[in-house]
């Protein structure tokens, strides 16, 4: 049985890698979080994806390939999860997972992680990374924040650098209200985007308790300061939408 499982994993890894390589130029990258060594593929030139977006696609949805970057916020969130989050045996929802780094750490720590993103290509990479890093109990779902169709609630919801557009403020707030269980925690990593202030006001109005820390992250020889915001929902479920 073990041999069959190993062969199946190798075959799926090979197929996913071939699919990725047929469409993207990638480089391998390894990140260390304590005892965890996370291997991922980064795009060699994320900006090249911009040339593939038609004017019609951009006008319709302002659809830019943010998912394709390895962002400092995702590293900061992953580091915070490694150090402080005890999610073993518990469901975890990652919103806007991109390459999936934070969810990979949560899965390595025993969380049952559901990776979600609006872009199918993001989930392609997240699925490959989860398999590459031998993450158990993982799931993948396309999710449009404007019409969220996921019928589940979670004690942990995580997201990193998703408030780059003002329109995302109300959408993210609605998703947290919809998916976070009473007593649960939403963890947001944000590099001090201007739009984040509006989100914080909405969360404060609904009575979420907030704990904030700061993570210094160096990526590609550049230092970023990442705010880590833990919002805890009251057990009564105040403000549930």
Characterization of this structure:
It is built from 7 helices and 9 strands. It has 241 residues and is of the alpha/beta class. It has a single domain (14-232), classed as 3-Layer(aba) Sandwich (Rossmann fold), CATH 3.40.50.150. The strands form 2 sheets. Strands 5-4-3-6-7-9-8 form a 7-stranded mixed β-sheet, sandwiched between helices. Helix 6 (168-179) links the parallel strand 6 and strand 7. The model is unreliable at 237-241 (pLDDT under 50).
Key terms:
single chain; 241 residues; alpha/beta; Rossmann fold; seven-stranded mixed β-sheet; two-stranded antiparallel sheet; 7 helices; disordered C terminus
Per-chain topology:
Elements: H1 2-23, E1 26-33, E2 36-43, H2 55-61, H3 72-84, E3 91-94, H4 101-108, E4 112-117, H5 120-132, E5 138-142, E6 154-160, H6 168-179, E7 180-190, H7 196-205, E8 209-219, E9 222-232
Parallel strand pairs: 3-4, 3-6, 4-5, 6-7
Antiparallel strand pairs: 1-2, 7-9, 8-9
Helix pairs in contact: 1-5, 3-4, 6-7
Rg over CA atoms: 18 Å
Just name the CATH architecture: 3-Layer(aba) Sandwich
* CATH fold description: Rossmann fold
Structural class: alpha/beta
- Beta strand %: 25-35%
Spans with pLDDT under 50 lasting ≥5 residues? Answer: 237-241
Element-level helix/strand string: HEEHHEHEHEEHEHEE
Mean pLDDT: 92
Shape verdict? globular
Name of the CATH first level: Alpha Beta
Report the oligomer. Answer: single chain
Q: How many beta-strand segments? A: 9
Helix content: 25-40%
- Whole-number count of domains: 1
**CATH homology superfamily:** Vaccinia Virus protein VP39
Biggest sheet layout:
7 strands, mixed
What is the first-to-last residue Cα distance? 45 Å
């Amino acid at each position: 049985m073990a041999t069959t499982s190993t062969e199946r994993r190798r075959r799926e890894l090979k197929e996913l890698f071939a699919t990725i390589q047929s469409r993207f130029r990638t480089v391998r990258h390894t990140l260390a979080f304590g005892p965890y060594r996370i291997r991922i593929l980064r795009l060699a030139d994320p900006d090249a994806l911009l040339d593939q977006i038609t004017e019609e696609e951009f006008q319709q949805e302002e659809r830019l390939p943010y998912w394709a970057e390895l962002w400092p916020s995702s590293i900061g969130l992953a580091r915070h999860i490694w150090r402080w989050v005890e999610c073993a045996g518990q469901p975890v929802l990652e919103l806007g997972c991109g390459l999936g780094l934070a969810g990979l750490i949560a899965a390595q720590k025993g969380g049952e992680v559901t990776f979600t993103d609006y872009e199918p290509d993001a989930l392609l990479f997240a699925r490959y990374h989860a398999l590459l890093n031998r993450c158990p109990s993982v799931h993948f779902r396309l999710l449009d924040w404007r019409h969220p169709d996921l019928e589940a609630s979670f004690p942990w919801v995580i997201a990193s650098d998703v408030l780059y557009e003002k329109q995302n403020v109300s959408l993210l707030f609605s998703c947290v209200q919809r998916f976070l269980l009473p007593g649960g925690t939403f963890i947001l990593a944000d590099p001090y985007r201007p739009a984040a202030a509006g989100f914080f006001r909405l969360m404060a109005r609904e009575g979420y308790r907030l704990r904030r820390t700061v993570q210094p992250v160096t990526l590609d020889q550049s230092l970023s300061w990442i705010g880590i915001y833990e919002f805890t929902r009251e057990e009564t479920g105040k403000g549930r939408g």
